[in-house]
Amino acid sequence: MTVELPRTGPLHGWSEHFADLPDGVQIMAEPFVAMADLRVAPTGPAADAVAAHLGVALPTRPSWVEGDTARVIWLGPDEWLVTSPFHSPVDLEAGLRTAVGAAGVVVDVSAQRTTLRLRGEHVRDVLATGCAIDLHPRTFPAGSAAQTTLGLAGVVLLALDDGVDGGATHYQLLVRSSFARYLATWLLDAATEFRGA
């Protein structure tokens, strides 16, 4: 007999810790999404087929774009991370494999990363304490993406404009699952500076 267990991430149960953050810093662990690493030439029939499948062209600079049912994040000249809350990992990988054919590679990496959403008046300052990237909206506006280090953990960092707080820039962090608790602890510690600010 097979028993279905609920899917939990490495930050399951951390909402209490995140609820105790100072005003101006909000962090939440986001629900599980399917993720696939895509390697293909950025132009040509395979890239066109992937774009048709996803409903959006592959970005050709450090950024992310939203398709019909997936987000595509530029990781390098011929590499993208495709995420989707609408597909199972198996379906996301299979659809991309069909689109790319023998001209590229698709690997399911859904369990590899945990996703955090960060917003608030002081969140850019918190990130700046451990990230070398200039996060000012003039240089890292909504729609930007970068692979970088935050508090000694490798992350994929996205700048978002989710329409909350008058369209202010917020951030999404994708961190390796094995580093998620370390990074969450680091973020909580970095945010204490803003208690009472």
UniProtKB/TrEMBL annotation:
Database matches in SUPFAM superfamilies: Folate-binding domain (SSF103025)
Cited InterPro entries: SoxG, TrmE/GcvT-like
Superkingdom classification of source: Bacteria
Name this polypeptide is given: Sarcosine oxidase subunit gamma
Species this chain originates from: Pseudonocardia hierapolitana
